[in-house]
Amino acid sequence: MFAKPTQTPRIMHEVLLAMLPGLAAMTYNYGWGIAFNVVVLSLLCLAVETLCVVLQNSPSTAQPALRHQMSDGTTLLAAWLMAICLPPWMPFIVLLTAAVAAIGLAKYAYGGLGQNIFNPAMVGYAVVLISFPQVLASWPGPQGAPDTLSGATLLSEFRYRPDQTLTEFAPSLAAFGSSHEWSATLFFAGGVWLIWRKIITWHIPVTMLACIGILAFFNFDQGSSASLGSPWFHLTAGGAMAAAFFVATDPVTHPANRRHQMLFAGLIGLLTFVIRTQGAYPDGIAFAVLLANCTTPLLNRLHRQTAGLGITAAPSDTAKRDSETVS
Fold it and tell me: What is the pLDDT of residue 306?
């Protein structure tokens, strides 16, 4: 999808580097099971990609194609993104299902890098979330946390708290310093570094987070037993920060035009908040991203039509602009 293939490994490796602080914080908070997920998922995703490339190419072209695909970093990024979404020490069958769904189905069923419509990591996570709901609800409490926060994600516990006010539910949420806040802060820092490096632009992450924060602000009742949660809680709990900077900014599956990128990000924020507060799943980011991915072809078509009529459109980000010269 990128105009200069040699740029893709550099970009992906910088994205992986930016994820390391948040990943380290999650490993510290939840134990080595997070690192286990990362390693096993990385190996499984690379194995699935190897099989797909071999089947996709003739014997004479398979080896060069495989060497190129294995070094571009996109498969490792998908593996890492899925790993941070899953509870620690996932069973092998769950990780294998995620790898096959993400790489075999979402990526190579559409033709490989740059051809996929849906974000591979979110496809893999959504498939195992629907297929193994009980296993994916087995989040432990952070190390040193009370038992009341173990067994499910913080968002799940918050959803089903029995007539407790926000303060009664978790006094630690009232002040900065809880485990989920540190992870979110470090993912935020990694995202800001990517913006500073001009690997991504601010349009998608800022719009998505602003949308979630604004919706939470207007639906927050200061912490009663019926509260939907404060803006700070919704921005730091679950995968909001990681998704805003590392998932929604995927140049293949978001629109090319910057105004359309903001519409795309606003839709993700809206759907995330609605699913979190009204739906059956505690954190709706994966479904929100996949539903928003459905709008990308339409928004890109509108962008091309606008450009064809000679109407000035906002420029796209560098990676997407480069990709359009090739695709």
Answer: 79
